[in-house]
Amino acid sequence: MAHLYGAATVPCDALAEQGARSHIALLTVAVVHARTTGRDEGCIVAVIALVTCEEPPVGIALDDVARVDAPLASALRDRGVTVAAPSWRATDVDWDACDMAVVRTVWDYIDARDEFVAWADEVGQITDLWNRPEVLRWNTHKSYLLELEDRGAPVIPTAWTAQGDRIDLWRLMTTRGWGEVVIKPAVASGSLRLLRAGGGDVTMAQRHLDQLLVTDDVMIQPYLPAIATRGEVSVVVIDGIVSHVVRKRAAAGDFRVQSEYGGVYEPLDDADEASRLAEWIVEATGHPLLVARVDLVEDATGQLQLIELEATEPDLFLNLVPAAADLLADAMVERLASPPGGSA
Known about the structure:
Blueprint: H1 12-21, H2 31-37, E1 46-52, H3 62-68, H4 70-78, E2 81-84, E3 100-105, H5 113-124, E4 128-130, H6 133-139, H7 144-150, E5 159-161, H8 169-176, E6 180-185, E7 195-198, H9 203-215, E8 218-222, H10 226-229, E9 232-238, E10 241-249, E11 264-267, H11 272-284, E12 291-298, E13 304-310, H12 323-336
Parallel strand pairs: 1-2, 1-3, 3-4
Antiparallel strand pairs: 5-8, 6-7, 6-8, 9-10, 9-12, 10-11, 12-13
């Protein structure tokens, strides 16, 4: 059994402490010994990597990245699992030393999507990777929304533009009857490089769109005012079943709901319609998903519209709903009993 990062053997408690704090992790414990003696030593019987980023996006601290999955790491350790947190970019990881790798906070992939999906293809041949490499390739470009729309999902109306296109933004807006729009790259995370535009002069927005189209495919959608008033509803689905629902509200005067922009999150108990829609959307993907987050917003008529299905690196709000960490840990441990490459 090869070591990850060539690290020295360390006690379980020290490993757990290290893993909760570091984005480049941890491994090598006495894996052979642990798998020989079972749980008698109270140590490792399996190794799961919660794959993270090398450097978080601007505005997000490395400690904040670690905190996102701290409840999950704790729940896994409670189940006798050794938890590693390697970066997908690290070149000295022996992925064969992991029984499973689960893509989590890989928030730096957006500037290297081709490299990231190639990494997933490679690692998926070595260890049991979730979500599956084909899902990661599909989900890291927002064109997957076209496929879901064809299957009946209520996707926000979208003008799809390709890298190199020349688009007259004002003409597009007037033709479609959109007074305000949101412009964002088709490969994106959070609100990075997103712009809300409208209200008359779109000169700055046209310049932003032109710059994006030099390097990216771009989505243009009508701005839905409910995002600023009622917020966004995020439904977390584990193994096809809703675990919990969170409402994300933007700070006063903003429409971006992410916490780095002042957004606040709260559990939402009365969300039957959103839960049913989210489970249907996940099933409509046709893929076995370990975990996904379905983000929804109301349109002008109060109907829920799909913003995105995040099956690559979703924040699952585990610090807000700690019980969900146990559900996800159980789902991961169950997969350890399935053959690598299985669909369960």
